[in-house]
Amino acid sequence: MNQADSKPTPSGDIDPALLEILVCPVTKGPLRYDRERGELVSEAARLAYPIRDGIPIMLPDEARSLDG
Amino acid sequence: MSQAASPAIFDRALLRQRRTRAAATVGQVAPILEAAADLLLDRLDDTTRRFTRALDIGGRGVVAPRLQARGVPFVVSLDLAPAMAVRAGGLAVAGDEEWLPFAAESFDLIVASLSLHWVNDLPGALLQLRRTLRPDGLFLASLPGLGTLHELRAALAETETQLRGGLAPRVSPFPELRDLAGLLQRAGFALPVADAEALPLRYRSALGLFRDLRAAGEQNAVLARDPRVPPRALLALAGARLEAAAGPAGIEPGLRVLTMTGWAPHESQSRPARPGSANARLADALGTEERKLS
């Protein structure tokens, strides 16, 4: 397998193999991929983790609160 | 947000800034990081296991390419700073070892080359790392141990005491070898091993050493650092002291590398039997007579 094939695209798409193993760092629960907003959403933690240039930023203090 | 009651020693936000800035300069210290990575990854030669899914933590561009060259097809690179994660060489993820963002049993190999020494809650991080390993997966980590930058620590302490009659921590506290095997065991790793190796470094001037530490993003990130004495003045004086004390070979700041290896438990691994479960007498095996201690 060649990793070059699976590099994130410039549009900010995230690698599917990576998406499969990412969880919310706070709850270790599942994430929902919001392609439109470019975010990984943890409903349990009420946090949305941003994806910048295809890189998931899985840091609780960089995440957007879903409760506004 | 705090994860546990463990005291915070390091300023993680500052560390992230430093690593972001160092992403552009870390190439300058590549030879040191490469030597450390080779020292660590040599351990892979001791096992016949083939690894297919690896996590590279804080590899700074020297670990992931080596894993790929060894035939590991899937490598994820985790770093606190996105800019550093991008240049690491695997699939980039920005994240925190204290808040690991990976599902249980995602990897069969985790490598952390000189990267776990800025973690506040090392026992907690090790536990989380063990959980992301598949059964019989390997954890390989190296970190600078007690004795690293020892002369620099002493020179800074003497200079600062002279300047203002007091001391603030300026060189990160490093763990001691005997702490590490216990930590691995506490985190549930099987067959834990910890050992120490010296990685010799040599500098002609103190400035060269400071420049490398900065290029690697390894300046002081201790929370209790004291902002009253500007590091610039202090460093100049401490640097002069280091140079005065140096031998003909120059300044040898000494990197003492502690290596940890541990396996995620699996039934195929050997383990000690329960005490009292023996069905033969040791005295018989030794062909001797058992006597009570008087």
General description of the model:
The complex is a heterodimer of chains A (68) and B (294). The model of chain A is unreliable at 1-11 (pLDDT under 50). Chain A is 9% helix and 25% strand. The longest helix of chain A is centred in the first third of the chain and has 6 residues, at 16-21. The N and C termini of chain A lie far apart (42 Å). Chain A has a single domain (3-65), classed as N-terminal domain of TfIIb. Chain A is mainly beta and 68 residues long. Chain A has one helix at 16-21; strands spanning 32-34, 39-42, 47-52, 55-56, 64-65. In chain A, a hairpin with a 4-residue loop joins β1 (32-34) and β2. In chain A, strands 1, 2, 3, 4 and 5 form a 5-stranded antiparallel β-sheet that branches. With 294 residues, chain B is α/β, with parallel strands linked by helices. The N and C termini of chain B lie far apart (58 Å). Chain B is built from 10 helices and 7 strands. Chain B has helices at 12-22, 30-41, 64-69, 82-86, 122-132, 150-164, 177-186, 206-215, 231-245, 282-286, and strands at 53-57, 74-79, 91-94, 107-113, 133-144, 190-199, 255-263. In chain B, α6 crosses α9. Chain B has one domain (12-266): Vaccinia Virus protein VP39 (Rossmann fold, 3-Layer(aba) Sandwich), CATH 3.40.50. The mean pLDDT of chain B is 83. Helices cover 34% and strands 18% of the residues of chain B. A 7-stranded mixed β-sheet of chain B has the order 3-2-1-4-5-7-6. Chains A and B meet through α1 and β4 of A and β2, α4 and β3 of B.
